[in-house]
Amino acid sequence: MELGTGNLELSQAAADLRYLLSRGYPRKAGLDLVGNRYQLDHTARQILHRGVFSPDAARARREKLRLLRDAAGRPLGLDGHNVLITLECALRRLPLVAADDGFIRDVGQVSRHFRASPETDQALELLAAYLAQAPAGPVSVYYDAPLSLSGELARHTREIWNSRGLTVEAAAVPVPERELLTFPGPIASSDTHLLDAREEIVDLAGEIIRREMEQGRHFRIITLSGDNSPAYAKT
User: Fold this and answer.
1) Nearest-5° angle of CA 208, CA 27, CA 143?
2) What CATH number is attached to the domain comprising 205?
3) N or C: which end of the chain has fewer CB within 10 A?
4) Does residue 38 sit within a domain?
């Protein structure tokens, strides 16, 4: 894992933002203040936005982290585009951030412009292989219907995963978060709204990325504090 960004100012900015958030400072105002103070560009501000949280918020989310193996035999709900885009960004060697709350996130704001690519199949294959090793089930994948060709992506997901012997339901829905907020089992996402609302979260993309790194694969992961390793809750 790449530790740091090679930019001391960004690490200092992260520490300053973390301090402001720990004192109850509004998040947007804190980001603006720190970004302006260090004259950060848009990408650097996105890294802070996606990676830095108050210690209390980070701790609460870490306590909800579960490994995929903890969901074995239980229904698992996937935030489809959220998980898929993080993996695709990793495969495309785009920067990721190992966030304070233990989750790995992309920083490229890809979701609004998402289009299927060769990395889409690679990411779906990685997901299928990983899910097959620690079978949860059934798996329900919810894609964001307003994004282009989401219905086709759902069909393609079913094809690839069924070929691996996985029991999966994949659908394009108007608001995936609505389905996941009431899902009867753990969910896989790094969406902060879902993390704060639900009690059992699997960082599925993060688990796969870390496993691939253990096997010698290299990704562009930025860390901004001393401890970004996931602290999985015991079950």
Assistant:
1) 40
2) 3.40.50.1010
3) C
4) no
